[in-house]
Model the fold of this input.
Amino acid sequence: MDTYILGISAFYHDSAACLVKNGEIIAAAQEERFSRKKHDSSFPIRSINWCLESQGINSTHLALVAFYDKPLIKFERILSSYLAYAPWGLRSFLMSMPMWLKHKLFMKELIMQELNYSGEIIFTEHHQSHAASAFYPSPFNESAILTIDGVGEWATASIGIGEQNEITILKELHFPHSLGLLYSAFTYFTGFRVNSGEYKLMGLAPYGQPKYKEVILNELIDLKEDGSFRLNMKYFNYCAGLTMTNKKFEKLFGGPPRKPETNITQREMDIACSIQQVTEEIMVRMARFTKNLTGQDNLCLAGGVSLNCVGNSKILREKIFKNIWIQPAAGDAGGAIGAALFGWFRYLNNKRQTDGVKDFQKGSYLGPSFNDEEIKKVLDRYNLFYKKIEPTELPKKVAELINSKAVVGWFEGRMEFGPRALGARSIIGDARLQEMQSKMNLKIKFRESFRPFAPSVLKEKCSEYFDLDIDSPYMLLVADVKKEKRLPLPKDIGLKSGFERLKIPLSVIPSVTHVDYSARIQTVNKEDNPLFYEMIKEFEKISGCAVIINTSFNIRGEPIVCSPEDALRCFLRTDMDYLVIGNFILDKKLQSNISKDKLHYNHYLELD
Done:
């Protein structure tokens, strides 16, 4: 008999479900991809239903359901925090209570009711789920584990050790002292959305100078050598208020927070640079202490802060550990994977075997896929003009389109699990074109012009373009473009400031080279995504370049596309030139008579 375990994360942000069969991850998806509500935190019933239906089973086939945290302990922390700050925070307390009283306090009953399930349910601790999501899919038999996020029940960071199927948590940092919440406070202060815009803050950092670094270290945080710290809570409002920072914080940084959608000034750039450098320092100190505490050669990372690819790369460059593996869905969505795998390996006490080389995340291609018959029905339903290409000819044809300066929507195979598009739901283009960065940002993604794009590079050619000599299949590491690939700088470069530097081509692949010569890299291998690999290989044959632009297939405020209908809506509402979906190619110019209104655009558009 096969053993199925369902993992669930819900009710904070990025709700998700994961299905594990006999210890193997066979399906995982975030609720936002189905509901079309970005960072959807609701109970992930659509994701659950898809996971079960994809395997032809229902809830009666489940041996176990695992939820990714312990709601009662989290509720205890929330009550304690509000009591400590009473009567301040009463409004925030009253706003949060309906959800707790309706759902969160009765999670077991909710799961049983929503799934029509009467079997066993377990609740793992939040950072236990993160640790499990990092260690169990990793290629290591033994490893140190470091998890860093906003907050779980009480823990905001943890250090553990994984050995075979055992995970032991050795140290924890507790609320309200949190690196994730510190970074989110600056995300809020610079005018971006908390739990959504943190990566924008990271992308903004290279435009600034660390003018506020000492202010942060002297006034906001008491940082110890081992990476532990205490925040000066007189500057923060998140324990009981409706905002992340307060008036004292504003005074410290020269004025009120930037209002969303207003111009970004040099102050925001300098603040971003300062908090990014502080974050990197804390991450490195935590990693060093983890090494000293565990004595391990390998490190596994998870928790939302582990999506800070610049910080991850700083740990890598410091050579603290011989090997590093980072959970691609490092945030709360990945907690569903961790909970399910914890159920299999620890709760059911099953053995675990690895080869020390290959991970078990399957490239993170764990979501829905659609065959040509299903895709054709959708195309015909809307009377769209398309051409079918033989599978063997598709990579070359797409490579030719990219080489002709076209921007291509790429919808192939199983959808990615996690926040990154990895060549299944991607928008792709020619990295050699300087103008491609602004075109894709402003006319296709409808997002801020300063946002960098990531390169996808053939695994075996990575070291020819970037200062990186290990795999980065999940786009979670940053490296500099090699000096021999850089271009001479103009003599007046010193006079350029802020976003003026965007207009200066820095390398032979300028549209994926950030202003500090860095790039967030995806190495593409033939095993995990053969079609994507072959397409880039064909592009290299034509152009001599083994690098393309790869950004997520969505517009600003929208989740990455999941279904053919989602892809068509996005394609028709942007300046993408072509859509490649299954073995079909759609030319935008031939769709001019198609009414965009025919594709019902039913989702919650949220600017972030």
User: Anything to note?
Assistant: Residues 601-608 have pLDDT under 50 and may be disordered.
